[in-house]
Amino acid sequence: MNFSRFWALLVCRNREFLRDRSALTWNLLFPISLIAGFAFAFSGPGLALYKVGVLGDADGSAFLQTRYIQFMPAADLPAALIKVERHQLDMLFDPGGRRYWINDESPKGYILEQVLRGADAPSTFDKQRVSGRIIRYVDWVAPGVLAMNMMFSCLFGVGYVIVRYRKNGMLKRLKATPLTSLEFLSAQVVSRWWLTLATTVLVFVGADFFIGFPMHGSYFNLLLVFAIGALSLISLGMVVSARTTSEELAGGLLNLLSWPMTFLSGVWFSLEGVHPFLQRCAQFAPLTHMIDAARAIMIDGAGLADISGHLLALTAMSAGLMAVGAWLFRWE
Questions:
Q1: Other CB atoms within 10 Å distance of the CB of residue 117
Q2: Which residues are CB-contacts of 256 (< 8 A; sequence separation ≥ 6)?
Q3: Whole-angstrom distance, CA of residue 187 vs CA of residue 181
Q4: How far apart are CA 291 and CA 299, in angstroms?
Q5: Residue 4, pLDDT score
Q6: 183 lies in the same domain as 211
């Protein structure tokens, strides 16, 4: 290896990055903003490790004084039991009735059961079985993982690629041909759309073969949700790439969109107990509606009428973002 050539390339790349003020600023501000966002989302005297719904009024039980457990009032017993089934609550506690409910497939529920029995000994509480089928955590998280994988494929598969085309001069050369911007953008969207759906179907079939997901709804409805959701995410990536010329800035902007959606759309954990402001913000993310609709279909057997609100939101986002992206698009 020629060290002088290596050093020249190293210096050149460093200068290119440092002279790109937008990318440099982004690399400094993004980690800070991400840390600040998590600090706000989980602010409080201590991070609650468990979430317990409490029926009725507390009776002075020692269990209710346990630190690092978030106790939330639960007025509706059937609705609270569904949250226990779906791993949105780790336990449902009824101090007046001397009973509690946990999901036998939840490790957190088991720990809370031991804490309850230790805190209120020698008092006894009756363990109640959660009615209905038991939902494993992997069953609950699978729709979120599928949607998250689609999100990264759609955003970076369109947003980053178009920026690279613009930077290396390919778009400038295409502009000199009879090709119109509508034709170019349509080809990009359709190509990424069917590739994303095809890979998602393969991932779903392969994972279902080894793990075995519950599927209580229609496969067609699930495919429809993913198809409309993919269009909304592709359109979002097109907005980012409409005029961006720096690959570093494009990558930063796409990370700005993807990672908050990953953590605030309920991919890995329920938003139950998160700051209400963030719960409202999550409704503006396409990923949130994709995951909620997919879980409703796979776990609850929901039909099109049940998820119509999510479908309308995804359709509106797709149309609006695609219109904005086409309007902002520039060849150079």
A1: 16
A2: 30
A3: 10
A4: 12
A5: 65
A6: yes
Whether the model clears a pTM of 0.70, i.e. scores above it, the answer is no
112: nearest Cα among 129, 124, 100:
100
Residues 147 and 249 in one domain: yes
**Cβ-count burial 14-31 (b if 16+ within 10 Å, e if not):** eeeeeebeebeebeeeee
71 and 213 part of one domain: no
**Which residue type sits at 64?**
L
Residue 241 CA to residue 221 CA, distance in Å, equals 31
Q: 226 and 285 in one domain?
A: yes
Q: What is the total count of domains within the chain?
A: 2
Give residue 296's domain range. Answer: 137-328
Q: Answer for the pair 240, 253: CB distance below 8 angstroms, yes or no.
A: yes
Helices 247-264 & 286-300, crossing angle to 10 degrees?
A: 40
Q: Which uninterrupted H or E stretch holds 52?
A: strand 50-54
Beta bridge partners of 129: 102
331 pLDDT tier (thresholds 50, 70, 90): confident
Tell which residue, 102, 5, 1, 126, has the closest CA to residue 51: 102
Given a cut of 90, whether residue 316 has pLDDT beyond it is: yes
The upper half-sphere exposure of residue 279, i.e. CA atoms within 13 Å in the direction of its Cβ, equals 9
Q: Are 71 and 63 in contact (CB under 8 A)?
A: no
State the DSSP string of 280-321.
Answer: HHHTTSHHHHHHHHHHHHHHH---TTTTHHHHHHHHHHHHHH
Same domain, 80 and 223: no
Look up residue 206 and give its two tokens: 């392969």
